[in-house]
């Protein structure tokens, strides 16, 4: 019996994503994270943008998890 060699696996070339394609998404998520950090860390304090206790109650456990004091 003759054995035939299996065909060599073709490995596709990895093409890098250009920085111009990543930059808008990086800026968007960076701004989104800064807004989230503001609401978790500073909202309902001296710089509150929204009155009442609603935001504080929604992010209360996140504040403790991240080490922000809130009471």
In short:
By secondary structure, this protein is mainly α. It contains two helices and no strands.
Strand content: under 5%
Please state the average pLDDT score. Answer: 81
Low-confidence stretches: none
Name the structural class.
mainly alpha
Q: What distance lies between the first and last C-alpha atoms, to the nearest angstrom?
A: 81 Å
What is the number of strand segments?
Answer: 0
Largest sheet: none
Given the structure, what is the number of helices? 2
Order of helices and strands: HH
Shape: elongated
**Percent of residues in helices:** 40-55%
Topology of this structure?
Blueprint: H1 19-41, H2 54-66
Description of the molecule:
The protein is built from 2 helices and no strands. By secondary structure, the protein is mainly α. The longest helix has 23 residues, at 19-41. The radius of gyration is 25 Å and the shape is elongated. It starts with 18 loop residues before the first helix and ends in a 5-residue tail after the last helix.
Index terms:
mainly alpha
